[in-house]
Description:
219 residues; mainly alpha; 2 domains
Amino acid sequence: MVLGVLAAEKGLTFMEAxxxxxxxxxxxAQFIALELWGTPLAIGIIVFTTLIVNLRHMLMSAAITPAxxxxxxxxxxxxxxxxxxxxxAVALTRAQRTELRPSFYFGLALPFYLAWITSTxxxxxxxxxxxxxxxxxxxxxxxxxxxxxLTGLWSGRTSILPWLTAALAAxxxxxxxxxxxxxxIGGLSGTLVGALQYGFMKQEDSPDDRRxxxxxxxx
Length: 219
């Protein structure tokens, strides 16, 4: 709804707001695009910024690929269209606990997709009467959503180092470059530390592969 309110403030028509959510379906990229929306329209900057922000989907899809690669191709390819942050987080949590089936994934994704479009249009319809959504604290909604998602992805003490690395890297980069770079570099930094940590843990847990040759007389 906040997105719809902001879209109305930027002058998007009802149909444009509908197409904006139905075709793009990427919350953070849509909010950033609206922040950059102005006259004259800086199309190149908007496209480049949304590209950088959505590069995180490469990391997200890599994480969930083991769970969906066994599906029929028509399901696995279609599922990537709905790989929004919230859907990804819930689906990944499910995959870590049990088998992730297409019925569960699309039973989660399709209602979310329809709710996203409906909420955008609702916000657009009432947006001009609400005014600035920040006066109601609605500008914190995005942050609250991601904090809630983190609690579901927590896997114990092993999560601390990658999460702290991602957060610190994002904060440092944000003081240097404003825009999408903190999201991308924070995500890559946390992923790299998590991969290195996983590699060290596997080395510590791996048994000694050395084999003792049997005596010549052994059967």
